């Protein structure tokens, strides 16, 4: 399932519907990106799914009026971050690797989505990377990212095979990850997130396909 991260105004029309329907729609709209962020923290697919489910279950029990939340994106991401860090910390402590908790928290703080989703400098950097991709690679990538075309549709558009399209998009994503990793190394040489963390971050900004990370 997928959906865009919109402001609360996108969902205000749901206020008159049943609360069950509202939560079901929110879950569908937000699951992919919240799951991606939770997985970025926990590095565990099943734990990440549990984190998102537990978050929405807690939200349901709280009886909070969703339509009263001005910044739904920030509210959800903060909630998922807290829930994921708690789950990850419990797992690490149980395994006897307490030092990993501090390192992971430092990585998460470096690419905190409450801030980076609004970071214009980084968005400019990402666009610059895409603009400098080889022509066909850039076109295939933009047809996927900007127009939402499937690989088979892009293949028809470009007159190439589906495998060729997959290769172009994979190269574009690999380039994006490497360049953004370098971007963070320049900003803070002593604290660099791993490439998987960068991949999950690019998902949040819509620059990578979830299935190809």
What does this structure look like?
- By secondary structure, the chain is mainly alpha-helical.
- Helix 7 packs across helix 8 and helix 7 packs across helix 9.
- The protein has two domains: 108 residues, no CATH class; 94 residues, Arc Repressor Mutant, subunit A, CATH 1.10.10.10.
- It starts with 18 loop residues before the first helix and ends in an 8-residue tail after the last helix.
How is this fold's topology laid out?
Blueprint: H1 19-42, H2 45-62, H3 72-95, H4 99-110, H5 113-116, H6 120-131, H7 135-145, H8 151-158, H9 162-187, H10 195-205
Helix pairs in contact: 1-2, 1-3, 1-10, 2-3, 6-9, 7-8, 7-9, 8-9, 9-10
Number of domains: 2
Global geometry: globular
Question: What is the quaternary state of this protein?
Answer: single chain
Largest sheet: none
Rg on CA atoms, Å: 19 Å
Q: Compute the number of strand runs.
A: 0
Percent in strands: under 5%
Instruction: Count up the helices.
Output: 10
Which features would summarize this protein structure in a list?
213 residues; mainly alpha; 10 helices; disordered N terminus
Offer a concise description of the structure.
This protein is mainly α. The chain folds into 2 domains: 8-115, no CATH class; 119-212, Orthogonal Bundle (Arc Repressor Mutant, subunit A), CATH 1.10.10. Helix content is 70%, strand content 0%.
């Amino acid at each position: 399932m997928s959906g865009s991260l919109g402001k609360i105004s996108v969902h205000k029309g749901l206020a008159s519907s049943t609360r069950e329907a509202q939560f079901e729609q929110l879950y569908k709209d937000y699951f992919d990106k919240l799951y991606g962020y939770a997985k970025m923290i926990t590095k565990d697919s099943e734990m990440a799914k549990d984190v998102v489910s537990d978050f929405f279950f807690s939200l349901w029990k709280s009886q909070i009026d969703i339509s009263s939340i001005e910044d739904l994106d920030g509210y959800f991401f903060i909630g998922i971050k807290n829930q994921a860090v708690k789950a990850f910390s419990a797992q690490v402590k149980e395994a006897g690797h307490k030092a990993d908790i501090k390192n992971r928290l430092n990585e998460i703080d470096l690419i905190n989505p409450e801030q980076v989703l609004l970071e214009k400098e980084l968005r400019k950097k990402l666009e610059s990377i895409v603009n400098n991709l080889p022509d066909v690679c850039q076109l295939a990538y933009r047809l996927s990212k900007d127009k939402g075309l499937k690989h088979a549709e892009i293949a028809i558009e470009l007159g190439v095979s589906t495998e060729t399209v997959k290769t172009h998009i994979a190269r574009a994503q690999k380039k994006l990850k490497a360049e953004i990793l370098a971007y963070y190394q320049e900003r803070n040489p002593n604290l660099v997130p791993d490439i998987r963390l960068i991949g999950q971050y690019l998902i949040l900004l819509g620059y990578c396909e979830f299935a190809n990370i």
